[in-house]
Design a protein that fits this description.
By secondary structure, the protein is an alpha+beta fold. Helix content is 15%, strand content 47%. It contains 2 helices and 7 strands; from the N terminus they run H-E-E-E-E-E-E-E-H. Helix 1 packs parallel to helix 2. The relative contact order is 0.27.
């Protein structure tokens, strides 16, 4: 299923866990990302936690206006030989609160994090947040 920001918003909103939406620059050591495409692995689920820094603004009713600059954890999961991946740079992401840290989940199937988000994606998530039209594509 293709990633859809309205569907991701609904998933976060319906969760018992705490989420915030942040638009910002992600910084981390890209060489720490797992890569199992060249290895024969069994079909097991694994994850790797990578320290990162996210600097930008979180979503409010007025848009992306609240400053957000802090350490986050990239929780990169794998399923068989496929692992989540991302790059440094601009992201629009749903961060999940896990204890005292914010976690950016990166799975082998895209979603919950959008690299180089489009204006349309930003407008859609703002509309969802404001309680306006929030329909998955």
């Amino acid at each position: 299923m293709a990633p859809d920001i309205a569907r991701d918003y609904a998933r976060a909103a319906q969760s018992d866990q705490t989420y915030i939406v942040v638009r910002g620059e992600l910084h981390f050591e890209e060489s720490a990302l797992p890569n199992r495409m060249d290895q024969r692995q069994s079909w097991m689920r694994d994850s790797v936690e990578i320290p990162a820094w996210l600097a930008g603004r979180s979503l409010t009713r007025d848009g992306f206006t609240k400053p957000f600059e802090r350490d986050v954890i990239l929780r990169v999961s794998c399923l068989g030989p496929w692992c989540g991946a991302t790059t440094k740079g601009l992201h629009l992401t749903f961060l999940r609160k896990d204890g005292q840290v914010w976690v950016m989940e990166i799975g082998p199937c895209p979603g919950m994090t959008y690299s180089e988000p489009s204006d349309a994606q930003e407008r859609q998530v703002m509309s969802c947040f404001r309680g306006e039209t929030c329909v998955p594509e």
